[in-house]
Amino acid sequence: MAGLEESEQPQPLCGTAVTCRGVPGAPESGGPAPGAPGPVVLDLLGDPSVDEVPFPSRPESAGAARRLTHRVLLDQWGLSPQLTENAVLLVSELVGNAVRHTGARRFGLRMLRRRGWIRIEVRDPSRGLPCLMPVRALDVSGRGLFLVDTLSDRWGVDLLPRGKTTWFEMRTGDR
User: For the segment 35-85, what is each residue's pLDDT rounded down to a tens digit?
Assistant: First the structure.
């Protein structure tokens, strides 16, 4: 995976467990409420619709990835609130899998749009494949890929020479 080598040191992210005092839009600086996308979130973390945004493989990175997804889909691309909400949930699930199950130090988030579709990718350096498991009504974990399978139009995994990309696609209605 280009730029996400195992030897890289994680960089702190504003809006996660790291304090970013004085940064406009960061939750610790009196900006938007936690979970709401700040006005400069793309400037702070990068724009995943332009280039892959790297994250340290820590649980708090899921919040930053959700904020980026919300910002790009709703504010930048003007997609519907329902589609945005579903995509944010699916990003959270894929990021959670990357953090919990790969043992990687970093993962990357990328978003692509073409007429009528969006594609969101989470890339990590592990070649271990995610597995869609049967889900029962009382299960409290293991529902991530079930949600991806249910809410997306397509999803899959592309094996790379050094890792994999887990992705999902959703129809946008702008044909």
Answer: 444 546 777 889 999 999 999 999 999 999 999 999 999 999 999 999 999
Q: Which residue has the tokens 């889909």?
A: 73
> CB neighbours of 153 closer than 8 A, spacing ≥ 6?
117, 169, 170, 171
Tokens at 25, concatenated: 């839009």
Cα separation values, 28 from 14, 19, 22, 66, 73, Å: 9, 6, 8, 17, 24
Q: pTM higher than 0.90 for the full model?
A: no
CA-based nearest residue to 111, from 37, 150, 168, 151: 168
Task: Determine the distance from the C-alpha atom of residue 120 to the mean position of all C-alpha atoms in its chain, rounded to a whole number.
Answer: 8
